[in-house]
Recover the amino acids of this structure.
């Protein structure tokens, strides 16, 4: 279930085992993967090493990561880039044929591989979608959503029930179910995610008995395009700051100066908190890219096109930006082979939590995770040939929230699970949702409570989970006491 980069990589790697791939949309469009402006992090440059990549991942994740998973990801990154290139992905190269490498927040050097500049996600998804469409072992059914999971008498996955885009519901026997349904951003008031990233896959897995992990760790991207037209906001890539752009206030005063030693390239959670505080104080944040060299703008066609649609030329005008929910580090708890605690249920990509991202994802590790973990899971499932047992009973996530209840859930989640949190706001949100039967009885309300409860229980700040009432010090990168990574304010 899921047509993003992780789901497509699983489907391809599972050959020749027959795969039925369900997705909301067909092809490269409509997924968070296709919208990704960042590239793929890989230690392929001169003097770089997978160990350095892994170290930056651990620092960004506040050392809450699974170290083995981090090392596996960093070591596999160069091969992932080569594999995508073998499928036809055209990565940006210099005249001498060497890969052009960009730098993003949290990385100590340039190691981001791009395809078509800031259109990497779209470029890679086009190649993968074409490969899957031509794969004889994959039957791709678009316009479908997962409604229920069928469990056998011994409690393992035995089938799925899916709903088509015209309302028909169909059961399908399945010995192995892979969830690659993406994130939870659509539950919040501002997000860079598409409409389909509503957490429904996670909610259903939890209802079926799968364990969750790190559900309180939610990354807010600091530079979504500030627009009044809805909650789904376009992203302004972090790579623009890597090319020299800076965050400023209304008077043009740098916002990150004196906040963190890495300045505008500090880890995302640090930058998001700074902008969130400024916004709470009544200010507006801007990305000033007027100092970016003219030749560098060739790497940012998506930003130029987006700004032009709003009457802005970023080469002469500042870009209004705001924090928005971008990535969920938590999800269905899985082992390093993608297996969940529920037999027959596997998860990969943003809906899964293997511990690789820790408390805060490092920039451009998400597309990488989708490729590396997707291929590994597909290869593991390739040789499994179990026949599904009969379905004993069906499990669904619960009723859908009505429009009014959903708006209230969104309001409470946004207020409580933002870049700055407190025990008071978290408890208030939980009380409001549990006190409203229409909210508490819906699957969105149940998922909201599953996110809020561990956030309230985690008293100390760590990574993207920042408690203003924390008893810990301001250096929240536990285990790393060097000034280079400590948060100053």
């Amino acid at each position: 279930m899921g047509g993003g980069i992780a789901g497509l990589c699983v489907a391809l790697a599972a050959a020749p085992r027959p795969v039925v791939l369900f997705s909301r949309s067909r092809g490269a469009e409509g997924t968070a993967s296709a919208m990704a402006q960042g590239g793929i992090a890989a230690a392929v440059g001169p003097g770089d090493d997978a160990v350095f990549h892994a170290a930056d991942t651990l620092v960004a994740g506040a050392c809450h990561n699974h170290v083995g998973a981090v090392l596996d990801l960093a070591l596999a990154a160069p091969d992932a880039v080569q594999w995508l290139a073998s499928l036809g992905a055209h990565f940006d190269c210099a005249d001498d044929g060497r890969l052009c490498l960009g730098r993003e927040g949290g990385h100590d050097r340039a190691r981001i591989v791009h395809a078509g500049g800031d259109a990497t996600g779209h470029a890679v998804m086009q190649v993968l979608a074409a490969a899957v469409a031509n794969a004889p072992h994959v039957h791709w059914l678009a316009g479908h959503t997962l409604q229920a999971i069928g469990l056998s008498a011994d409690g393992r996955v035995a089938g799925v029930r899916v709903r088509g885009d015209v309302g028909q519901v169909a059961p399908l026997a399945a010995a192995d179910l892979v969830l690659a349904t993406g994130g939870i951003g659509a539950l919040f008031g501002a997000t860079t995610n598409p409409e389909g990233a509503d957490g429904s896959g996670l909610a259903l897995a939890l209802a079926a008995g799968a364990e969750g992990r790190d559900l309180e760790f939610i990354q807010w991207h600091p530079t979504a395009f500030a627009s009044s037209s809805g909650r789904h906001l376009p992203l302004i890539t972090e790579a623009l700051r890597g090319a020299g752009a800076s965050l400023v206030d209304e008077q043009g005063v740098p916002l990150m100066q004196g906040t963190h030693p890495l300045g505008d390239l500090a880890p995302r959670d640090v930058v998001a908190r700074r902008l969130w505080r400024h916004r709470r104080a009544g200010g507006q944040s801007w990305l000033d890219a007027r100092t970016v060299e003219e030749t560098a703008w060739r790497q940012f066609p998506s930003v130029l096109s987006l700004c032009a649609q709003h009457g802005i030329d970023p080469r002469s005008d500042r870009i209004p930006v705001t924090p928005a929910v971008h990535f969920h580090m938590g999800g269905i708890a899985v082992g390093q082979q993608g297996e969940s605690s529920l037999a027959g249920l596997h998860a990969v990509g943003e809906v899964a939590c293997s511990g690789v991202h820790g408390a805060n994802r490092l920039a451009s590790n998400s597309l990488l995770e989708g490729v590396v973990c997707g291929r590994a899971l597909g290869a593991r499932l390739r040789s499994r040939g179990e026949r599904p047992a009969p379905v004993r009973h069906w499990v669904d996530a619960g009723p859908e929230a009505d429009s009014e209840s959903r708006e209230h859930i969104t309001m409470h989640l946004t207020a409580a699970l933002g870049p700055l949190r407190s025990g008071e706001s978290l408890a208030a949100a939980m009380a409001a949702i549990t006190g409203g039967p229409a909210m508490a009885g819906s699957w969105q309300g149940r998922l909201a409570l599953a996110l809020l409860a561990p956030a309230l229980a985690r008293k100390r700040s760590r990574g993207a989970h920042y408690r203003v009432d924390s008893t810990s010090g301001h250096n929240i990168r536990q285990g790393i006491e060097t000034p280079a990574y400590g948060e100053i304010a």
About this structure: Residues 5-217+326-396 form a domain with the FAD/NAD(P)-binding domain fold (CATH 3.50.50.60).
